[in-house]
Amino acid sequence: MKLSQVLVASEAKLKAAGISSARLDILILLEDALHKDRAWLLTHPEIEVSDSQTRRLERKLERRARHVPLAYIRGHTEFYGRSFKVNRHVLEPRPESETMIELLKKLRLPLNPAIADVGTGNGAIGITAALEIPSSIVDLYDISSGAIAVAKHNIHLHELRLHVRKMNLLSRPLRPYDAILANLPYVPDKWQINEAAMAEPKIAIFGGPDGLDVYRKFFHQLQRFTWKPEYVLTEALPPQHPKLTNIAVEHGFRLLKTGDFIQVFTPVKIT
C-alpha cells in the first residue's frame, strides 16, 4: 500500500473514533514505523509501506482509536527537547510543566543548589533540572513504585546519577533543599477529563474536591521542617492560584512570581 493511502485510511479511522488530533497522531506513528521525519513522509506519498510495517501500524492505530495516550503507545515522549520513557504507571509530561524549568533557571540559586522533585512521575522535571543546572544536586521522590522504576530508567537513559526515593511527598527528605519542584495532583475529583487522560494513573491526577488537598499536605510538611527551602515551585490550574497562594501563606510562604500554570513561593522572612 502506498504511503498516501495509508495516511488517508489511518486518519479516517482515528477521526471516526473521535480523535481530534488524528492527522498529527498518524504522522507521528508513521515517523516511528518508517524511521523517517515528517518532511520526508509528506514529500514521498508514492513510497510503498510493507505488509509488516502496515500490520504493526494497525495494532498501534487500534490502541489509539481506544483513546490510549499516544505516548503510551510509543513508549516515550518529549519534554524540554529530550526523550523520556513513559508507561501506564506515570503521567505523560505536559508542555506547561516546561515553564517550571524556565522559572527555576531564572532564580538566584547558590553555586551548587540542592533541588527536590516531589511527585516526580517519570522523572522528566527533576532530570531536566539536573541537566540544565549541571552543578545542582537533585533528588527525586514519588509514592508510586511503578513511577520510581520509570524514573530510574530515565536517569540511566540520560546518563545521570541521582537519588530516587519512594516516599509520601517529602515526609523524610534526604537533605535540606534550596528549591523544591512540586508538580502534584491538582485536578478536582469531579472534573471531566478527556478519554486519553482517563488511561493515566488517577493518583497522579486528582487532588480532592477542590484539587488542592495534596498541596495542603505538602505545605504542612514544609512547615514542620527546621529548615526552609528558598523557593517552592508548584503547578496548578490558573483559577486555583489564589487558593493555593492562601495555602502557602498559611504555612509561612509568600508568592514570588507566577508563569502560566506555575507559581514560585519563598519563605516569609521574620524580622
Structure write-up:
By secondary structure, the chain is α/β, with parallel strands linked by helices. Helices cover 41% and strands 17% of the residues. It has helices at 3-16, 22-34, 38-43, 51-65, 70-74, 98-106, 124-132, 145-157, 195-198, 213-224, 241-250; strands at residues 76-79, 82-85, 114-118, 137-142, 163-166, 179-182, 231-235, 253-259, 262-267. α2 (22-34) runs antiparallel to α4 (51-65) and α6 packs parallel to α7. The model has no long low-confidence stretch (mean pLDDT 95).
Radius of gyration: 21 Å
Class derived from helix and strand content:
alpha/beta
What is the level-2 CATH architecture name of the largest domain? 3-Layer(aba) Sandwich
> Under CATH, the topology of the largest domain is which?
Rossmann fold
Low-confidence stretches: none
SSE inventory with pairings:
Blueprint: H1 3-16, H2 22-34, H3 38-43, H4 51-65, H5 70-74, E1 76-79, E2 82-85, H6 98-106, E3 114-118, H7 124-132, E4 137-142, H8 145-157, E5 163-166, E6 179-182, H9 195-198, H10 213-224, E7 231-235, H11 241-250, E8 253-259, E9 262-267
Parallel strand pairs: 3-4, 3-6, 4-5, 6-7
Antiparallel strand pairs: 1-2, 7-9, 8-9
Helix pairs in contact: 1-2, 1-4, 2-4, 6-7
In brief, what are we looking at here?
The protein is of the alpha/beta class. The protein is about 40% helix and about 15% strand. Strands 5-4-3-6-7-9-8 form a seven-stranded mixed β-sheet, sandwiched between helices. The chain has a two-stranded antiparallel ribbon with strand order 1-2.
Key attributes of the depicted protein:
271 residues; seven-stranded mixed beta sheet; 2 domains; alpha/beta; elongated; 41% helix; 9 strands; Rossmann fold
